[in-house]
Amino acid sequence: MFNRLTLMFIHGAGSSPVVWHFQLKHFKGNAIAIELPGHPTGSGCTTIEDYAKAVEKQIKENHVTRPIPVGHSMGGAVAIELALRNPDLAGLILVGTGARLRVHPDILSKVRENYAQACRLVAQWSVSTTTRDPVIVGRIAQEMLRINPTVTYGDFVACDKFDRTKEVEDIHCPALILCGADDRLTPPKYSQYLHERIPGSRLVVILGAGHGVMLEKHREFGDAIATFLTSL
User: Tens of pLDDT along 90-104?
Assistant: First the structure.
């Protein structure tokens, strides 16, 4: 079905393929938005490895021969896992993520105690304080509310257990690392770490954007990916 380079967009914890709305338009014909198990249908996973296996299954089902995983946050952890398991990937794009993803205790506790409040908290932390776009904050919170709290909690547990700080040096496919300059959930130092340890990787830091960089600055985000694709 897809015989060209295919971008496989992988959403983050408590999210869904809807978050890639702009990117699916920008790269129409060359993009698939992956729905991780439980987001919003079915049961979720509690390890990054299991989510990676689910994505591998979708790659096979869609007959993608030259996949480029594009992972955001938890989806970035999944993309890292895919790159380590499949060294022949056509490329790799990591967005607002890290080789280790420790979760703030306040988020874990609030997801279990008051899910609606947790969704609002994550949404607020996802947007740059320089813009604080209430529309984007509202969309992120609304989308999280569509996900079963148990699934979202499992996502954050999976993130908290994830640690590939040593293994990322073994990634050798072409890699682009993207992040928002104002990201409070996975600060730019996480992306810098990946850049320093993934050989030949490129780092792009987008100003005026936070953790939700693909929503806040979707044009700059799309341009960065398009430039990367021309180098492959």
Answer: 999 999 999 999 998
